[in-house]
Amino acid sequence: MPIRQADLALAHRLADAAGEAIRPYFRGELGTEMKADHSPVTLADRAAEAAMRRILDAEAPGDAVHGEEYGIKEGVTGRTWVLDPIDGTRSFTVGRAIFGTLIALVEDGWPMMGVIDQPIQRERWIGAAGRPTLFNGAPVRTRACREVEGAILATTSPHAFNDDEVPYFMALVAAVSGGHARQGPVYGGDCYNYGLLASGHLDIVCEAGLALYDFAALAPIVEGAGGRMCDWNGDPLTQASTGQVLAIGDPARMDEVLEALHAAPGAHDHGHGHGHDHDH
């Protein structure tokens, strides 16, 4: 079912509310705590998600809500709003404006609409099934990439890959760098990298260990700009995906990127038995 204009308008209001909640805390008193999984959470995370949930409770009471900070509220419509108030909390806590608020609308397990909002620089990408991705209201496109060698690859941190995953990532690094250290990956960025890819500034993003609220918003944005998002086996991302993701700006390079990733030693048995399970 195509995304309704009302849903797009609601997504913009959610992003506006999250930004209003976040901005007063940036480079200020953060009140940072460590969660059980040792990731940081701030007062800004909680304030932003609470602000979005208040709007959803009032305007879409039948829809489910799945948020990073306040868990899952069941719904009755088959639609779920997936919220990550600050994706890139580590960047936020050190004053780097490359974090983002992620908002997704998932229908029957499929991400149908997504927002990446950077509230400090006031940059917003929004993508929806069947529509072109917009950046601050204007359409954007991914860029052409003639070959994998020389492609610009980004990931948030090499430390986010587990021991089984490192060889895959390093095989992809070897393919894009062609042995030249200066052509190594761009590190840092979280969700901001996917916006940059949609706008034609990066070619590939490779990550692992992502939860639904980390990736659900990204797929409609990348795909609406002409790119592809998939898991490490090349399958589309759904609510059941394990959190090993690839974003590829030029779909013509998709097979080569997957081939490079799977050039890792022992890659023939990848994807069975050691993926992350975030679908709680």
TrEMBL record:
UniProt cross-references to CDD domains, sorted A to Z: Bacterial_IMPase_like_1
Keywords: Hydrolase, Magnesium, Metal-binding
InterPro entries per record: Inositol_monoP_metal-BS, Inositol_monoP_superfamily, Inositol_monophosphatase-like
Record-linked Gene3D superfamilies: 3.40.190.80, Fructose-1,6-Bisphosphatase, subunit A, domain 1 (3.30.540.10)
Entry cofactors: Mg(2+)
Residue intervals passing through the bilayer: none
Family according to the record: Belongs to the inositol monophosphatase superfamily.
Protein name: Histidinol phosphate phosphatase
Protein species of origin: Sphingomonas olei
